[in-house]
Amino acid sequence: MTAPFTGGCRCGAVRFSFPSPPVLTRLCWCRDCQYFAAGNASVNAVFATAGATFTGQTRAFETLADSGNRLQRHFCPGCGTPLFSEAAVRPGFRVMRLGTLDEPGRLRPEMAIWTGSAPGWACHDPGLPGHPDQGPPPAPVRAPA
């Protein structure tokens, strides 16, 4: 997969670029993500922040995730686009919303997590490994130097 991976919010006030491919892509069915994804799963790519660039201002909403981790969920204050999450337990990584990439079709989810929280009408891809809870941590769990 060739880099960079670029993207931003709907109004263009926030832009980003990651020099390396994500370490993990996944669907998340936790209850918080259902709020942010209009009732569906959120689709996320976990990127190392080393060498990444970000322009523009975001606002953050702090939540206590189902995993017990405190998350800062960032969005554009102008257009409201959900952009990314950060967890203190995983410094050096950002969990980007796949829809914010300029080319979201370059990536596809590798697994689904928190499927135990999905509504009964949810469509699950039988080809994706599913986990009723958080599932395995992203590998590597440390950001590259």
Secondary structure topology:
Blueprint: E1 5-8, E2 15-18, E3 24-28, H1 31-36, E4 42-48, E5 53-55, E6 59-64, E7 70-75, E8 82-87, E9 93-97, E10 111-113
Parallel strand pairs: 3-10
Antiparallel strand pairs: 1-2, 2-5, 3-4, 4-9, 6-7, 7-8, 8-9
Order of helices and strands: EEEHEEEEEEE
CATH class: Mainly Beta
| Number of contiguous helices | 1
Alpha carbon gap, first and last residue: 20 Å
Report Rg.
Answer: 14 Å
Binned, the helix content reads under 10%
Structure commentary:
There is one protein chain. The longest helix is centred in the first third of the chain and has 6 residues, at 31-36. This protein has one domain: Beta Complex (Metal Binding Protein, Guanine Nucleotide Exchange Factor, Chain A), CATH 2.170.150.70. The chain is mainly beta. The chain contains one helix and ten strands, in the order E-E-E-H-E-E-E-E-E-E-E. Mean pLDDT is 88; it is low at 140-145. A hairpin with a 5-residue loop joins strand 6 (59-64) and strand 7. The chain has one helix at 31-36; strands at 5-8, 15-18, 24-28, 42-48, 53-55, 59-64, 70-75, 82-87, 93-97, 111-113. It is 4% helix and 34% strand. A seven-stranded mixed β-sheet has the order 6-7-8-9-4-3-10. A three-stranded antiparallel β-sheet has the order 1-2-5, with no helix packed on it. The radius of gyration is 14 Å and the shape is globular.
